[in-house]
């Protein structure tokens, strides 16, 4: 089996933190899977995503991407991220946002225009392409946030809570697009707090808390994910 | 070595993005373009009378005498004509000041010489036309006093039978030294304000630049940009280059306002001299300094509000110290000494030296080196403290 990611003994502690954000994390994410990465707030999911896309360096351990040491250029070429934040420019319109990110990918001329038009069309945003993002609804912003990763054929997508605050119609569209990408061979690593999304979309599941992987299985079907999640991470509120 | 094209496309992408963001930010546009143009316009108009008065007063005075044969009146007329600062006019319409000499003046002066305790029956009066520059009033009053002292001195000498040369006067006790070559003429308000307020606005570029960097960091776009095949250097250059371009546009725009707009509505003229390449070099160096300053501010700011307060405080303070708001030549000595430490002063002097005094590179090199040293310090601070996530 080929692994999209093969993580061994990752450790990371922020300078001002009292405990590790990643504590000896080892995890294998098989290629072409729809992989759920779950955990309560502050579990270390976003930190792990930052490591996986090369934004943070760990203090120990190794990251392999498709069996190669994960260099910055390898990660940039193969990993697309949809961050938890609406990482878009509110002053620009939808098309200008996508033009910007597409140019950062090196696209120009007709390839640029075709790719951007296709991404807007796929996310049903073509009628609003010249509207500033600040005037978009939450659902439209989330769809545009996802459209950015449609500008390039990534082998792995990292999605950090991509459906927060999204209406059912937009959420359904996001699911459809992700399923299509998965069927086309993209490995998807999906972080969410909505457990029904896990059973609906994911084939693999890992649960982490306090920077550690608590659970890692290759089956989701038939499981009560919420009960499993609460049994592993506890019922105490995670406000700290 | 790979093709530079992908690198240039990324710089272009960021340039387009930054320019669009600035163009859609009405507050930034007002601060960067409208505010300095208004400052130049209004302050130059406000200061033009003061400038005229301080440099070459040419006050129009009407002399009215109740007695056409009055000796005092005739002497005063001669005195004022010889002063070089006065134009005697015949009608009230043109007069900025009117000096009225009562019929009793000759007699009053004679009585005073005989007995210093006597008071005049009627006093001479000075009246000013409404709107006359306040700067003119002490000049007219002082000239009249000087005339009276001179006249009294001559009368007393005559009474005491002291020989006095016809053209002798207290002025003979003063030797007027020629100005040294280092002393430069005071720039007119436009020559002072055009480069001054241009610089004020150019330094304010740090406001949108630092604010955008902080916003990108908090909104996650900076993180997203770093997930693209990008070096951190290209990300920084992608921010610095468009704002340096905006700095150049600001300066050109302000030159045009000074050159054409203000002279059309005032007596002021502004004809920038000097080597245009030197002006371009100063503008580029200022651009490097302002953008490096912005990156340094972004590196230590936790929020847009924090960055805004920091930029505002630093820019306003350095402009006050550096002679943008109050010209350095009008400052007391201690403030003049303090001005030497303001980057705004270095850049302002460099611009004025080239535009007004036709300086060559060696004349302004020290100012440029100081600005580049400041830019290097800011860049080093940015590299040390910059938080990407």
Task: Give the overall average pLDDT of chain A.
Answer: 92
The percentage of residues in β strands of chain B lies in 5-15%
- Order of strands in the sheet with the most strands of chain A? 6-7-8-3-9-10
Helix-strand category of chain B: mainly alpha
Q: First CA to last CA of chain B: what distance?
A: 30 Å
Structure class of chain A: alpha/beta
Query: Percent helix among the residues of chain B?
Result: 55-70%
Explained architecture:
The complex is a heterodimer of chains A (240) and B (389). Chain A is α/β, with parallel strands linked by helices and 240 residues long. Chain A has one domain: Rossmann fold (3-Layer(aba) Sandwich), CATH 3.40.50. Helices cover 34% and strands 24% of the residues of chain A. Chain A has 8 helices and 10 strands. In chain A, the strands form 2 sheets. A 6-stranded mixed sheet of chain A has the order 6-7-8-3-9-10, with helices on both faces. Chain A has a 4-stranded antiparallel sheet with strand order 2-1-4-5, covered by helices on one side. In chain A, strand 9 and strand 10 form a beta hairpin. In chain A, helix 5 runs parallel beside helix 6 (168-183). The radius of gyration of chain A is 18 Å and the shape is globular. The termini of chain A are far apart. The model of chain A has no long low-confidence stretch (mean pLDDT 92). Chain B has 389 residues and is mainly alpha-helical. Chain B folds into 2 domains: 5-51 and 187-385, no CATH class; 58-173, 3-Layer(aba) Sandwich (abc type-2 transporter like fold). In chain B, 65% of the residues lie in helices and 5% in strands. Chain B has helices at 5-23, 26-55, 71-83, 105-114, 136-159, 189-203, 206-219, 221-226, 232-265, 276-300, 304-321, 333-339, 343-355, 361-385; strands at 59-65, 86-89, 97-101, 125-128. Chain B has a 4-stranded mixed sheet, with helices on one face. Chain B starts with a helix and ends with a helix. Classes of the chains: A alpha/beta (240), B mainly alpha (389).
